[in-house]
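User: Quick one: structure for sequence A, then sequence B.

Assistant: Sequence A:
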Amino acid sequence: MSWRKWRRGPLATLTVCVLLSSGAVACSTGEAHGDTVSPSPVGKVLDVTDETGRNLREVPRKDAPEVAVEVAPDAGGGWDVRLAFHNFRCSAPGTRPAAAIGRGLAHLFVDGHRIARLHAPAYHLAAGLVPHGTHRITVRLYADDGTVWAVRGKPVENTADVTVSDVETRTARSAAADPVAQDPVA
């Protein structure tokens, strides 16, 4: 097998760019722009973490994803959680773990405990996870690489408070419906 020497120039640069285009390495002609090189193509990964230990990924407010959360009782028992997104789309399970602006998944928390990773804007929350009393249901947005989308050092999230009365608790206990879960967290 014969080997040819690479010629340095536009053809070699183009070849390297094509080979590296599927990786995390950026292609450059070697010129520095503004004397800075961004380590991430999407936002800036901060040293700050959320309470789960995930780094925050800071993006400008104008580009930031947003989430609204609505929680309603389900007639069969439990709670229906519905999400509304702005500047955000849920990635399919198994998506390559790389940050892309406005993409990722949502984590659902009940009273600070992660319950599920959501790849869709709807989830059925089992009645047993929300017993008698007032509970905080929080949805936080994550990039596919596991970083938390953030604006001004705060995670992009939204919260709904749910108060369960004795009547709802008794009804939920007697309901025989199985919860429909999407990627529950053990």
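Sequence B:
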Amino acid sequence: MAAEPEDHPDVQVFDEIRYIEHLARTAITRKLPVGLTYPQFEVMNLLTRRGDGVTPVTIARALQMTKSGLTNTLQRLAARKLVEVENCQSDGRKKRIWLTAAGRAAYGQAMAALRPKMESLRDGFTSKEFREALPFLRALRTWLSERDEGPGSAAQLMLGTAAE
């Protein structure tokens, strides 16, 4: 009897990644301050990790967001005074994004709410286990990004709908 698609380890890996992403996103979303969305949190998290003054193009690429989706997210964050969008002094066509004091406070509030969940995660798995998973996950991400031929191609692989 032929193997079912679900029996293939590659399909199982993508199923697990999808489930993990959904569970992580749901857990984070539940702890966000009222009115803050997950995409907004992702932008604030990126600005906190990479530093202020990042361009929208850099943010969109890093977060795998469309330009229009990011524009909407930035407009909502700016309307709440959580980020400032400034014209780049060296190139007036570009913009730079900065977290405001209110943005840092909202991000800090979200991280404080997430801290118990993160500590529980660290209690459940060792640093060694996380380190050992990283090479495979990074190689998989690199492989997918190098072969991404447009919208949906990585999704087809993850859903097991690509040619086998």
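The two ends are 16 Å apart (CA to CA). DSSP finds seven helices and two strands in the chain.

User: Thanks, that's what I needed.
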